[in-house]
Structure formats: structure tokens, C-alpha cells
Amino acid sequence: MPVFLQAVTSAAVFLCLATALVHVLLVFLHVAPPNPLSQRYARQVNAWVFPLFEQNWRLFAPDPESVNRKISVRTLHTAPDGTVRVSGWFDLTAVDDAAVEHNPFPSHTAQNMLRRAWSSYLENHVVDDQPRSPRALMTQRYLTNIASDRVAAHRGGSFEAIQLRVITVPIAAPAPASGAGAAGVAPRTADARYLPWWKVEVDSHGN
Fold first, then answer.
1. How far apart are CA 195 and CA 92, in angstroms?
2. How many distinct structural domains can be found in the chain?
3. Which among 95, 96, 142, 180 could bridge 176 via Cys, Cβ 3.0 to 4.6 Å?
4. Which InterPro entries does this one have (predicted)?
5. Percent of the residues in the chain that have a pLDDT greater than 70, as a whole number
6. Per-residue pLDDT tens for 127-152?
7. Do residues 98 and 188 share a domain?
8. Residue 54: inside a domain, yes or no?
């Protein structure tokens, strides 16, 4: 028995080391300047990196947010008698904010998952809300999964489709110092964006 446990432990350690090495290599190819190796295996690298291991350089060149966004979701369910029921809006951003507030060690999912999912969606849906590339379709599905999983966890119930609403509120510029001669900066108005209804897997969100 000890020999068997030793063999299993050795295999598990080897698998972990191999996975770690492959992960480091793929992430390195992703962030490295374009080269023959990264171009040849671009499909495999992107499949591994996106969307969970995406890298950027904002740690070294911070890009502070200039707006606040509130992302809400509502669900659609068709009853057996054909009646279509649309729920009220559920504030996903408020749930994340509540998980971060007064928490000395907030999780990455509460701080960044929803925000980064929306940023990636915007980057890949430049013209409209129609996915016109595999990456755009992937970011749409990623955002759909996050929203549907969270509303199911907090509200429960059955639904077949979801819709997202994103309210963008520009962060007001700081008021000028007294005596500067300016009356202040007029605040910009909020913008509400309604995304299309997206289907979700009924089996994963049923009663």
C-alpha cells in the first residue's frame, strides 16, 4: 500500500508540475512580442489564455476608470401554459460591491470578474451586439454564464433567457480650487445600454 500511495503521489506531483510548466509557457507566448512560435500556435495559446488567464500591462501603466458601471440582469421564463414571465432587474454590481465592502481580503471574482467580462465584451463588440468573430462569441457566452449563474444562485427559479442592462455614469471631474474663477464642471448624464435577450441552458437553472 505505501508503494501504491507513493506512486500516486509521484504521478500527482508530476502532473501538477507539467501543468504549471505548460501554463507558464503558454502565458509567456501570449505576452511575448509576436514570433514564429507564438504565431504558429496562436489558436492553442488563445484557447488556454482566454478568458480566465488574460494578461495586460495595467499593473505597470495603470488606466484608472473614468466611469462607474452598474450591471443588472433580468430573466425570462415561459410557463407550461405558455405564459411568459419577465422578472425584475437584479443588480449584479451591488452584489459584488457588498462582497468587497468591509472585506480585508476580497476575492478576485468579486473585484474583477464581472467588470473584466464587460470590458472584454466591449472590446469585441465594436459596432453592435452581434458577435462577428469567435472571440466576440466567447466573450458573450462568458458574460452570459456569469450573469445566469449569479442570478440563479441568489434568486433561484427557472429561466430560459436573460437580458443585461448596463448603466454607465461618468465620474465627475474634481471641483476647481476656490478662487480659480471657474464655476465648476457640469456633470455628464448617465447612459443606459440594454443588451439583447440571450438564451441560457435550461437544465442548469431549473428548479
1. 15
2. 2
3. 180
4. DUF5819
5. 83
6. 788 888 888 898 999 999 999 999 99
7. yes
8. no
